[in-house]
Amino acid sequence: xxxxxxxxxxxxxxxxGRHEVRRHKLPEDTMPTGGVxxxxxxxxxxxxxxxxxxxxxQEGLAGYLGEFRRRISSGELGSLPVxxxxxxxxxxxxxxNSSFLSAQNLSNLSQQIVGTGxxxxxxxxxxxxxxxxxxxxxxxGLCAAIFAVLDVTHGVNQWLALIVALAGGAVVxxxxxxxxxxxxVPAFVVTLAGNLGWNGLMLQVLGAxxxxxxxxxxxxxxxxxxxxxxxxxxxGLATAGVVLFLAASLLDATRRRSAGVPSRPxxxxxxxxxxxxxxxxxxxxxLNQYKGLPLAxxxxxxxxxxLDFVLRRTGYGRKVFALGGNIEGARRAGINVVWIRISVFxxxxxxxxxxGLFLAAQIQSASQTSGGGNLLMNAIAAAVIGGTSLFGGRxxxxxxxxxxxxxxxxxxxxxxxxxxxxxxxxxxxxxLLAAVVIDSLARRTQKAxxxx
Length: 452
Hints:
By secondary structure, the chain is mainly alpha-helical. The protein has helices at residues 52-58, 61-73, 80-96, 103-128, 136-153, 158-183, 187-206, 219-225, 231-259, 266-288, 295-313, 315-325, 327-332, 337-363, 375-385, 398-417, 421-448; strands at 13-16, 19-22, 211-213, 227-228, 293-294, 365-367.
């Protein structure tokens, strides 16, 4: 191809190898002076990048309000929807019947949500990957049956029976994780098959009678039914929670300041700690007005705190979030995707076993209906309603507590009002749909704001 002689050289085209390259003329005010090797001048007044959070926090209360509006408008809702929903539910049922907000009902509610909440913690892990586990109900029933048969029917040491039941849940999760991560079978199909298969195995373990009644003196029953009547127990737990939160917040702020990254000021930490203290001591006061601190609730909170630490403060937790956010990016970053997936499904089934044991202790038996009914839907709904995204990459173990409280409050309030199960199912389904819609709209808003 011949070059047009009328075209200026700096704007012409020339052949370089097999590729055609076009030269572009730079504006005169951007051309360096002093020859080819002259240094390019730097702007006289360079504006350093400033984190917007620092500007907001320097503005005081007005800045925080502006930051709150910005987060809401950009779809960063956090736990706000579920907290507002819980307030509305309690206000409605409390106005309909004063016994709903009584210390006795709230104390019973704190025990009743433990079984489903434990299962929901495991579901949170799977949802963080953007996957689903439809077998948690059957796994919970199977592990409850294993414990009951070993402890009651065969007289095995109760601690050994407990370990075998929990190990059974872990093995089930490992098997399903291998089929999903190694073989490549979709998690929906693997766990749907598991929902049927593990339910059949549970019926086989229970045998011809179909029901095994717990003695009420076993370790699982004691974990569920024990209540610490001393007021110092509930107030001590509240104090421990507040102190732990304050210490963790101050430590995190210190580490971030040392690293030269934005951190929460002491005033904000103090305000957050005060808000938490109000909630904790109010809960402790309510529990002490009835019988005291239920051990089941304490165990539930310990699981939440420990697994929350695993997710947010360890390398393993960051890998779980990375897989949920962008699996291909995580793979290219050197994360062992297969191992993380298998481990997450193992954790999920293990937590299903824990929840199944508490549910068996609640009704004092393991039967053919264990793990059935609406347990699966309630566990998944608790995780989603609590704020865990169905699309992966966003959620926390506290979602299980908040979601279980919402579902448990709806069921408790309707039972007090004498409404049928049909109405309960419809309202719970509506709440679940609303949670998913809010999650979808929040993601869309975040994408529009460039934050997803």
